[in-house]
Every structure is written in structure tokens, then in C-alpha cells.
From TrEMBL:
Reported cofactor(s): Mg(2+); Zn(2+)
Site location (Contributes to substrate recognition): 105
Molecular function terms, GO-annotated: metal ion binding; phosphatase activity
Site (Stabilizes the phosphoryl group): 55, 106
GO BP, sorted A to Z: carbohydrate metabolic process
Enzyme's top EC category: hydrolase
Pfam hit, one: Hydrolase_like
Native organism: uncultured Armatimonadetes bacterium
Protein name per UniProt: D,D-heptose 1,7-bisphosphate phosphatase
Family: Belongs to the gmhB family.
Binding sites annotated in the UniProt record for Zn(2+): 94, 96, 102, 104
Cell compartment(s), UniProt: Cytoplasm
Gene Ontology cellular-component annotations: cytoplasm
Keyword annotations from UniProtKB, A to Z: Carbohydrate metabolism, Cytoplasm, Hydrolase, Magnesium, Metal-binding, Zinc
Amino acid sequence: MSRGRSAVFLDRDGVLNVYLPGDYVKRPDELRLIPGAARGVRALNEAGLPAFVISNQQGVAKGLMTGDDLVRVDAALHDALGRLGARVERSYYCPHAAADACACRKPKAGLILQAAEEHDLDLAGSFFVGDTETDQEAARAAGVGTFVLVLTGKHPHAAASDDRALFATPPDHVSPDLAAAAAWIAARVAAG
Ligand SMILES: [Mg+2]
Ligand SMILES: [Zn+2]
């Protein structure tokens, strides 16, 4: 039985690109990389850890954007990262609404399990970097070994303040941004 590779799953909005509270990144020109995001992905690449985007995009189900818009935004994300020498293997998106009760919308595990199946990943030895408790719940539900919270998205003060109380289960680690999270992950993997 193959044990598979360790990987790093990345939420998109608030981790790789600037999160727009109450809105969606509907077009490529609305996409802005968070400083340090490409550096973080590059560090994962250099550590031999494949990176996958795992993201809910309910704006599609709400009719605020089309599936084609989502494809264009995703291409822009890969291009922007690629220009900075950073590579994400693949993005997995849930376009559904909460009311659709699909199996892929986080906090459900569907997108992560699909990525693991398609890329022969060892989930227990893998990491999820996210900015919300929904990310953490999805990671735990899928059996991802380690969840790292970053402060570049929905909960910028979670390291020091009451925001942390929003998390029923404390994250395994809190990093200011993806660059710091990636450095922490790479060091842990190197230490075995
Ligand atoms: Mg997010
Ligand atoms: Zn879905």
C-alpha cells in the first residue's frame, strides 16, 4: 500500500490573495496577491511539498460570477504566482451554495479527499494553511495532520486576542502570513 506524499493545502482568499469581506474575487483584475504569499509557496516548492488550493467560491451559486469567471480568476492566480517563481499544482473549488448540501463545500472534506485521491497524498503527514475555523474543520474532517492559521485574512488578531476564542479547537500553529507558515512547515518536515 502506498503511503503517498505529504502536501500542503492552501485556502485561497485570505491566504494567497487579499480577502474581500462580504464580496468575491469575480474577475482577474480583482485578484491581489498578499505580500509574502508567493515567497511562501516557493518555500514549499523548494521543500518538495506540492501545494493545492482548496477554496469555497459560493459567488458562483449566487450568480455573482460564472464558472468561467472562476476559471479565469484561477488562471490569473497561477500566472501571478508563476511570475514570482511559485507553483501551485492544482486548485479545487466548491462553486455551490451552503443550501446545496454538497459534499465539497468546506467545512466538509470533499475537496481535500479528491485532491488526496488524485495525487496519492498522505493526509496525516500533510498540512492545511487557512484563515478561518471552516478551513480547520475541513482539514480535521479529512484527516489532515496539521492546521496552521494565518492572520492575513478573516481573523487578523487571532494570535493575541479574543478572535482566538472563535476557534473551538486551537490551531496547531499560528503564523502571521503564508511565508512564515511555509518556513515553519518546511522546518517541521526537514526535522522528520
Ligand atoms: Mg479564506
Ligand atoms: Zn460543493
